[in-house]
Amino acid sequence: MVTIAFLFILVSSTLLSILLDMHLYDLSFFQTLHFSLTLDAGTRKTIVFTALITGLLASFILDYRMSKEESEKKEAR
Amino acid sequence: MQKELVEKISLTQLFILVSAFLFGSAIVVGIGGEAEQDSWIAIIVACLLSIIPVWFYIFLVSRIPEKNLFEIMEIAFGKMISKVLILLYILYFFYISARVLRDFGELIVGDMLVNTPIEVISITFMLFVAYILYLGLEVLGRFSEIYAPYLMGSILAVGILLLFSRELHVKNVLPILPEGIGPVMNTVFPKLITFPFGELVAFMMILPYASKVRYAGKTTILALMVSGLILAYSSFVQIATLGPEAKLRSKFPLLTATGEISLWNFIERVDLIIIFVVMFGILVKISIFFYGGLKGLELVFNRPYRAFIYPMAMIIAFMSIIISKNFAEHISEGISMVPWIIHIPFQYGIPLLLFPFVLWKSKGLRSEGKKR
Amino acid sequence: MKTMKLLLTSLLLLGLLSGCWDTKELNEVAFVTGVAIEQGEDAKYKVTVGVANASQLNVQKSEGNTPSVTFSLEGNSISELLDKMNVGLTRELRFSHTRTLVIGEEVAREGIAGFLDYLERSGQFRNNFTMLVAKNISAADILKTTFPIQKIPSLKIHNQSSTLFKEWGGAPDMKLSDFIAALSSKGRHPVAEALTIVGSPEQGGSVDNNKKLDPESLITLVGLAVFKEDKLIGYLNLEETRNYVWTQDLIQTTLTVPCGEEKYIDVRIVNSKSSIHANYNRETPNFQVEIIAEALLNGTQCRDDLEKVDTYKKFEKDIEVMSESMILNTVTKVQEEYEVDIFGFGEAMRRQHYQRFQAVKDHWDEEFSKADIDITVNIFLRRAGTSNKSFLTEDE
């Protein structure tokens, strides 16, 4: 569930920011997508992308743990 | 397994949270600059006008007791529609947190730590926020209680120190309202009424957790008035020190004004203290928006909100970077688009839509309560 | 699992040990105390920086070496040159303690807005430094003229001008932010201080200059540089500078007022307040400058009895008449010779008659030069030092 939420929020908030950018820069959707997300040489977007990936990993782990807890509960019953 | 956590904040804490929330980024970027020397009047007018929407928010929350905005929406609109609306609200809250975080990052990178990547500042700050919220709303409340005197004290002290440094030229504020109230109203609506005052909509997520709900509304409005006055005072000090042109030109007017303080060749360079203090306002603002969003996720995805904290914090840090390529884009989005297409629907549109449903449903709830 | 957690936390905490990302130790930086900008021979600007040699400022450790080192480079933009200074200097330069900015005369005549923007924008410069124009002399030489008491030349100039402003009013209180505010205002033109070197500039460049009782070369303040927008158009002398400052924010000054033939009284003016009342008389703007000041009698060469109220009245009248005509002369001179509003009369008009000013703001200087100026000085002579009657009086 956490992973789904993570991906959902990530995609939709990126969409929101891209929609605003499209309006501002007068570019098409894919151009803006490319332009906001590519790692230009010299920028340090790698840092945030790394953080994002740790977030994704954390949500995997959380999901895994929660599902395990639930199954344990069921077994206990 | 986990016992239900009942989080309560006291009225003092609520008061402090509301005022720190309003100072937040507003005191950093400076508000109402377009009204030139009358920006302090604009702030007071906006503060008085926004009592109406804030009172409206409080009214909505108080009709259905102990339910926050999202739970009210669930009651009013039913499961399906409310889920969509809640997801939109979550997006709104996260987007605004990202914008506030970017404001702060720009302040730090532009003025203090010139060589530090803004990404690092965003991430470390979000880790901090995540930690506080992981410990809960109560911890945020208590933390604010400790910090608030420094915030208020230093904002007030800036004016006094400037006065003693002979830098406060009150004649800069003249002429008052040379072209009538028109230009002032243009700044009030839509800019000031949505930022910072309208953003109090996020407190619809917090108000039900106040310990004495009956007085929470009054406390919020009192905090709104007090912080409106302090914001106006701060704006007045900035104009009197820098003059309206320089205030409008400056990226962070309060910081520029503070830089003018120079007393007895001893109290100088105090702008660092201001940054330290401003950080607290930003922290409260981000935390409250973030908390609102997390509560929504809890409702929609049916998992305790603590599970979402770390991943979502990383998304906000990520958003704060990709939100705009440069400062010009950040500012022009903030001026031309955000108030109209983002703030107004969420601050006024949906709550207004909610109003008749809440009236209708709460009647039902009350009569049910009587029957029992 | 627990050890894993501990290990991970300690690894993360290790990252904090490196401290601040932007950290710079004190021995890696050098503090610039003064910057001089003048016209270059091959390029647009020639920039000279004066860097403090901190070890020589310490009384115990001082070895008699130079307290300040200068270095010059030429180029077309200030920012690049300032970052390129390591061509000749060792450490990273820090500009937050810059106390003086000396502008060469030629550059000032061509306009200085080009680099003022950089100074305001960069955030490295604090705004509490003095802006000066080097009159008839190379700006770089100003930073190279030593002085025995305040060893670093730029600090000496800064101190000198702020003390002159506080004690006699001979220098304007114009910081960078005030200068830019005046530049962007429609109703005021900026001014800066002017300074020059008395004696030979070459001699001043050595520490040996400090060993003479009468220094071979000395930096002196000579009055006011008048700007039109960002271009230098002329100078005012020291007296006129004081009169200018008196219409603005004078702290205190001393006047020599005639009280008889070839006889004078010395008056210390303290607690002066000036206000400008703006008005429009049909088509001519009209300004009343009202000055209220307290005065102390420092000395007299006349025989008038200082225990009589009439004498005080007479002296007050004398001071008022003299200072009124003095200030009026200065204003008229600026009106006729330079035709730029350096006094901020336009700002007063904007504050008091906003609509009227909006109509004329684009040609305000023409309006200013035909304005009627009326100066009223109200002096309150309070006391006369520690003695009553002067011994001169008793001679009679």
TrEMBL record, chain A:
Keywords: Membrane, Transmembrane, Transmembrane helix. The chain crosses the membrane at residues 46-64. This is Uncharacterized protein. It comes from Halobacillus litoralis. The lineage of its organism: Bacteria, Bacillati, Bacillota, Bacilli, Bacillales.
From TrEMBL, chain B:
GO terms for biological process: spore germination. Keywords: Germination, Membrane, Transmembrane, Transmembrane helix, Transport. It is found in: Membrane. InterPro entries: Spore_GerAB. The chain crosses the membrane at residues 12-33, 39-60, 80-98, 118-137, 149-168, 188-209, 221-243, 272-293, 305-328, 340-360. The keyword Transmembrane applies. Its main location: membrane. Pfam families: Spore_permease. It is a multi-pass membrane protein. The keyword Transmembrane helix applies. It comes from the Bacteria. GO terms for cellular component: membrane. Belongs to the amino acid-polyamine-organocation (APC) superfamily. Spore germination protein (SGP) (TC 2.A.3.9) family. NCBIfam families: 2A0309. This is Endospore germination permease. The lineage of its organism: Bacteria, Bacillati, Bacillota, Bacilli, Bacillales.
TrEMBL record, chain C:
Residues 223-385 form the Spore germination GerAC-like C-terminal domain. It is a lipid-anchor. InterPro entries: GerAC_N, Spore_GerAC-like, Spore_GerAC-like_C, Spore_GerAC_C_sf. It holds the Pfam family Spore_GerAC_N. Residues 1-23 form the signal peptide. PROSITE patterns: PROKAR_LIPOPROTEIN. Keywords: Germination, Lipoprotein, Membrane, Palmitate, Signal. GO terms for biological process: spore germination. Gene3D superfamilies: Nutrient germinant receptor protein C, domain 3. It is found in: Membrane. Coiled coil: none annotated. The keyword Membrane applies. Residues 22-196 form the Spore germination protein N-terminal domain. One of its GO terms (cellular component) is membrane. Belongs to the GerABKC lipoprotein family. This is Ger(X)C family spore germination protein.
